[in-house]
Amino acid sequence: MTLRVTRTIKLVIVVGQAIWLSACANLPYYAQAISGHFEVVHRSQPIHRIIADPDADPQLKQSLKMIVKMREFASRELKLPDNLSYTSYADLERPYVVWNVFASPELSLKLKKWCFIEVGCVNYRGFFSQASAECYAEELRNKGYDVHVGGIRAYSTLGWFSDPVLNTFIGYSEMNLARLIFHELAHQVVYVPGDSVFNESFATAVEHEGVRRWFESTGTAFEQAALSARQERETVFVEMVLRHRQGLWELFQSNLSDTEKRVQKARIFDDLRSEFLQLKAARSEFGVYDQWFGQNLNNAIVATVSIYTQLLPAFQAILQQHDKDMGQFFAAVAKLSKLPKNERNLVLQKAVESNQKLRMAGQ
User: Fold this and answer.
1) Do 72 and 51 contact (CB within 8 A), yes or no?
2) pLDDT tens digits for range 120-176
3) DSSP at 148
4) Cα 54 from Cα 56, distance rounded (Å)
């Protein structure tokens, strides 16, 4: 049985479950998801075949050779799944593979959830067509939601299929290619249906550790310094956004009238933008966030920032507790993932507190 046939059978099984369990109103959505993924599968071809093709684009071949090395490194050094993910390549002839729609109420930071087969409930709804995503986003705006539509360059099928390398991210720098591959493979190790913050924070922890090790083994001192500078810059950005997010949360919990909340909400976003401009004036490297601040800032955009980083310190603490042994780390997180959500969060909180105590004791 060929790989493509096996993938097709898997997809048919998932589709059957989706149709059986979903309401009729969801069928068009599942249909576009099925069609979109079929296109990705259909366009995929083995990387080794492209590298061996004398007529293939030299720059593409060079990038794919690097990804082959990263893929081997991921399995060998990071204990990430050794499977066929990122061993094929697909050119979708568009800048993003999917467009995700995020939404939250006008006076709340709680992201709307959608529930799907296998993955559980997530804080976004993905579309393989930008027009479809924008159309759905407009429906939500008309219902009073703050909405954000974000182009996504890669997604994980959680091991159901062999995820290919895509043209949407093949042009990334070495650092960003490594980040993406390690992050997406981490989703195949541990995934908790219905807990996006847990899943993304865990994958981000794996990504950070993986990229650090990648450059330690292959990079120059300059590349390692660039990695440290980027991670420090991201920390500053996230902390800045989360401070204003906390201000929004306190505002929405207050007894002010809705009218006054709207006024204060606009003021908080203005303050966030002003702080960024001051930061960029002092440190020009923060200009990388111009595109993010160039959007119409709203609750949905701000709420998405914490999904990937909210529990990052906790997972980094657990990794440290296991002497940065990836196998032990994965086993600990897998065990943790089986606990009820409130118990998981308690363990994660204790891990951070324990790590802080060790740091203070070592000073």
Assistant:
1) no
2) 788 999 999 999 999 999 999 999 999 999 999 998 888 888 999 999 999 999 999
3) E
4) 6
Residues 6+ positions from 296 with CB-CB distance below 8 Å: none
The average pLDDT across 109-118 equals 85
Joined tokens for residue 276:
């960024």
Which of 17-26, 42-51, 193-202, 211-220 comes out lowest in average pLDDT? Answer: 17-26
Domain ranges of the chain: 3-172
Amino acid, single-letter form, for residue 293: F
Q: What type of residue sits at position 11?
A: L
Contact (Cβ atoms closer than 8 angstroms) between residue 111 and residue 145? no
Amino acid at 351: A
| Rounded Cα gap, residues 64 and 70, in angstroms | 10
Residue 25 tokens, joined: 């109103």
Distance of CA 123 to the CA centre of its chain: 12
DSSP tag of 330: H
The neighbouring-strand residues paired with 101 are 125, 149
Sort 16 into a burial class: Cβ within 10 Å, 0-12 / 13-18 / 19+: exposed
Residue whose structure tokens are 């990504």: 207
Structure tokens that stand for 107 in this block:
């006076």
Quickly tell me which residue has 């529990």 as its tokens. 311
Residue with tokens 């479809």: 132
189-200 confidence digits (pLDDT tens): 999 998 999 999
Percent of the chain past pLDDT 90, that is, above it, reads: 76
d(CA 29, CA 277): 40
Say how far apart CA 102 and CA 123 lie, in whole Å: 7
Retrieve residue 335's tokens.
Answer: 């065990």
Cα(312)–Cα(357) distance, integer angstroms: 18
Phi, psi of 158 (to 5 degrees): 60, 30
The sign of the dihedral angle between the CA atoms of 320, 326, 331, 334 is: positive
